[in-house]
Task: inverse folding
């Protein structure tokens, strides 16, 4: 009886030792450095895009349309007879 108990415990221990590495392979692996770099670049791009949109919203209502006529000094007065 004692021998069979020791054999069962030994067999259970051996099965546990062999199953450990197989179980470890099924776990999700940590991202590689290249994947981490891609994730970080995407986060940075999203942050920049959000900041850009926030700035556009902030400045959207502050714009006033200004008409500039660079040739205004070159034209004569509107009352001249030549233009009519």
Result:
């Amino acid at each position: 009886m004692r021998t069979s108990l020791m054999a069962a415990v030994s067999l259970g221990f051996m099965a546990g030792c062999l199953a450990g590495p197989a179980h470890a392979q099924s776990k999700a692996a940590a991202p590689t450095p290249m994947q981490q770099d891609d994730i970080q670049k995407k986060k940075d791009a999203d942050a920049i895009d959000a900041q850009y949109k926030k700035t556009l919203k902030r400045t959207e209502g502050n714009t006033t349309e200004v008409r500039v006529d660079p040739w205004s000094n070159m034209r004569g007065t509107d009352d001249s007879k030549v233009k009519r």
User: Anything to note?
Assistant: Residues 32-57 form one domain. The helical segments are 2-26, 33-60.
